[in-house]
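S.,

Sequence below, as promised.
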Amino acid sequence: MKNEERLHKDSYLIGKMLINTIENDEKSSESLENKKLDKVYHYFLSKGNINNHLSNYKSFSSKEGYKRFLVAIENIPAETGKKKIILRNWIYGVAASIAIIIGFSLFLMQQNNSLNNEIIKPGIAKSTLILSNGETLTATSNDFTYEKQNVSVKYKEGSFSYSNNVSSDSLVENILTVPVGGESSIVLSDGTKVWLNADSYLKHPAKFLGDTREVTVKGEVYFEVAEDKEHPFIVHTPKGDVKVLGTGFGITSYPEENSYFTLVHGKIAFNDNVHTELYLKPGEQVKVADNQIVKRTVNVEEYVGWIDGNFVFRQRSLGDIMNAMQRWYNVKVVYDDSDLKEVKFSGDLKRYESINVLLDALSLTKEMEYSIEGNVITLYKR
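The prediction came back faster than expected:
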């Protein structure tokens, strides 16, 4: 009985220690009576990016994650000198005390790979710059420089850039296109940097002329605009225009989908020529849906985290999530039951993981399951 009491005491303590580590980013100074549980604690801490795995995956397993966690951890090995042991009884006690690790099984299950035999890899840097003279420059693994007449373009380490030293009295407009399954970036002649997500394009001048700096976009794009108070920067989209001086903001505007204009820092104004012009502060967003405009405060990472290699979902419908996945992974998603599109999920995911990580995570909720055949993913309602 005393052993059991010590087990529960240590289980509670290890949960407290892990939570303290997660919240305060520092190891606990408390010690465990059960040295095998001490191995459990250090096992969790030694897995690398443990905090990220916990926060990234726990939200997906809202219903059955805890049960699955108990099953998954049954086979976790830990080193004790030269001998491996299976941490069964001890870790069950830990699990009883640390509900915060709901969904950690997703990380553990990933070590055993996906249950499906096909792995779909993420997109890559891939784009084409269409010049006004009809020539095309395709992004490759090799750096290059193009100089001809009034255009000077460099491609280096996955990004295009223009020289601002080219003299021109006429407006020369080029188009950067990014296909499904691709991404790209470009530095415009004024120093503004633009990131383009899959299935997007940016129409822009090789050199800005006149009193304004104007570009046109479709798809998902993020801007870090070079400040120039004398020449306002204007972005045209199918749903409205954004006017800025110098700022960081994201635009998501795909056909047949809601559009989002999200301000990270600085100040922008949104105008669709129908409603009253709206001014945004950092952390605010304009959502355009069914010709209705709403200004709201949001977690900007959910809408611009992709430029840092993250997908962030907060109570997003499966339909919206899969729209993004289809573009990035170049897949087609088929729903066995259309009601699945409305199911809400939350969680974070690394953008450069295989799509199977996300699908396995969603499957653990017992809301759905999936199959893969070629580049077609079929989702089934349970």
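The chain has nine helices and 26 strands.

Coffee later?
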